[in-house]
Every structure is written in structure tokens, then in C-alpha cells.
């Protein structure tokens, strides 16, 4: 292996580890969101029961405000969960892109006169898959930007 190839392999391993750590952090946060979501739902059920049981006007106003707060919190958790799921998809596409890059490099470093028709076809298919993955990642990024702009 040349120094260049070793450097590429090392960078690929580092990127893979970085994606793995990010995926673990996302998974932990998704689990935390799920637990918090259940707690918020339970609190909401209790507040609704108290509202139905009848209470004074002041208590009713306070319970209604508390219920609205819980609904708002639930919505923010759902939004965060959705954002994390998009990040998970982006990580998968990033991993796929890295694998396709590696395969494509192995075909491209061969001399053209040594390539078989099957090699050329495989190289073309990998290139098409790579372009598809890049387009999907671009679409995800575009969706995230539109979402952030709409929230502002």
C-alpha cells in the first residue's frame, strides 16, 4: 500500500467511528425522548381527569394552561424525534456513500486496457448508485433546511 492508500483507509476508519459514536448518541437520545414522551402523556391524562372532575374557574384555568404546556412539550419531543430520524437516515447514507466510494476507487485505479466489460459495467453501476446516494443526502439536507426556515 502506498502512503496515500493508507491515509485514505485511516480516514475511512475514523469517519466510520465518528458515525458510530454519533449513531449511539442519537439512539440514547431517542430512548430518552420515548421515556419523556410517556411521562408527558401520563401527566396529560391526569390533568384531563382533573379538568373533567370539575373545579373552580381558577383551577380550571391553571389546569388548562398546564395541559397546553404538556401538548407543547409533546410536540417539541415529536419534532426532535423526527429530526433525529432524519439524522439516522443521513448517517446510513453517509456510510453507504463511503462504501461505494471505496469500491469505485478500486475499479478506477485499474488500467483501462486491463478492465473487462464486466468491470466497466460494475464501475458504471457503482457510479450510478453513488450519484443516487448523493442526491438522497442532498434531499435530506434540503428538507431539514426548509423545516428550520418554516419553524422560524
From the structure above, extract its key features.
single chain; about 150 residues
Which oligomeric form is depicted?
single chain
Head-to-tail CA distance between termini: 51 Å
Strand content: under 5%
Secondary-structure element string: HHH
Broad structural category: mainly alpha
Mean residue pLDDT: 90
Summarize the biggest pleated sheet.
Answer: none
| Topology, number of strands | 0
Rg, Cα atoms, Å: 25 Å
Q: List the uncertain runs.
A: none
Shape: elongated
The total of helices stands at 3
| Fraction in helix | over 70%
Number of domains: 1
Keywords: Membrane, Monooxygenase, Oxidoreductase
Main location: membrane
Domain BMERB: 13-152
GO molecular function: monooxygenase activity
Describe the secondary structure blueprint for this structure.
Elements: H1 3-52, H2 57-108, H3 117-151
Protein name: MICA1 monooxygenase
Pfam families: bMERB_dom (PF12130)
Domain BMERB: 13-152
Describe the model.
The chain is mainly alpha-helical and 152 residues long. It has one domain. The chain has three helices and no strands. It has helices at 3-52, 57-108, 117-151. The chain is elongated. The relative contact order is 0.08.
